[in-house]
Task: structure prediction
Amino acid sequence: KDEYFSDGLSEELIAALGQVDPAHLHVIGRTSVMSYKRSLKSLSEIGRELGAAFLLESSMRIESERVRVTSKLIRSEDQVQSWSSSYDAEPSSMLSFQRQLSAAIAEQIRLSLSAERLDLLKRRQTKNPQAYDAYLRGRYYWNHFTPATTRRAVECFAQATGLDPNYALAWTGIADASSSAPIHADACPEEFWKKAEMAIRRAVASEPELPETQTSVGILKFWLDWDWQAAEAAYRNAIRLDPSYSLAHRMLGILLACKREDAEARAEMTRARTLDPLDAMHHALSAQVAFFTRDYSGAIDHARQSIITLSNFWIGYYQMGQAYEQQGDYPRALDVLRKAEDFGSGNSKVISLRAYVLAKSGQTEQALAAVDKMQKLSEERYFPPYAIALVHAGMGDADLAFKLLEQALECHDVHLALLPADPKWDSFRSDVRFLRLLEGSGLPH
Result:
């Protein structure tokens, strides 16, 4: 219990501190902070690596039914302790812990809290201890980013909303897991679309002014509704509410790259990486943005950094593979994609891209064998039609590629959202069928 409770509490405290005074207090993101959990580095080293002026160091002990949390605010430059405090409480009283600690830290570094922000911090969390515990478990599982832990996270979030039907953060957890499942777990979009919409409605009805709520709205609008104008508005609103919320910057960067607003897209990804420099996903999706802007060397650099951050991160290898392919370096592309397959749990994007590279490099027989494999998988479970269409595009079979893209449109395959910017489809953009496809989806073109 200690680890999920302390990890969840740390994440919630980071989020709460990010809303204390966004104009003056910038908070490093959860992933970068948590990477130092068992580090032997000195505080000055950690502060220098994160670019943080102050570090909040906390320890927690759970004995019987009581929790003791000791926190210290330390200036990273010279390790001078600016403030310290201890809290002894039962777990139920931890619900007010973030508010007390955030206010105390703000006071110590001479920031002022408005009554409005204090009220928002107070309303951020549930008053139900069991719901809070379930929410912390959900966040713990969600941050592992695997199909199995995502399912477990949804169960925990659902338990939290069952205990507190107005728990906005738990509803955003359900929404994010449902909206992204078709992307990273090859889930059927139509199956999860309604789940995500329902969860968003509940989150907005409970707490519309949370940055997490607005970001979840944007994720749904981008990936499933294909309403990019509404998605962009939601992401920008989330950033207004909390400029330190790195996920909102990252998602806005992806959207802008898909719209080919390249300069601002790169700026948003830079901001996300600055806020949470050790988040492997930030680096991997910075590679995606560079790829969309046709900066393939930059994409490889970002992908390499994501792998350095997390050595078994299949998305990093995938991003590197597609950049090598565009450079015409097929052997390297196939080599890194083999690694992506090792870590990707059978994700369709990896299987499809590897077959596409085989097709582009003239290894047609092997590419067709991969198509047969994908077709068999599609008989066993939902398999995105886009994945098979891409391989036929690599073989130059435009008729079959477009036929499969039409099937992808019929089942609302979320991968179509990448068509407006993906360079793998550049040779097809002059085809009237490509324009009709984008018009039929409502995506920008």
In short: Strands lie at 54-63, 66-75, 80-89. The longest strand covers residues 54-63.
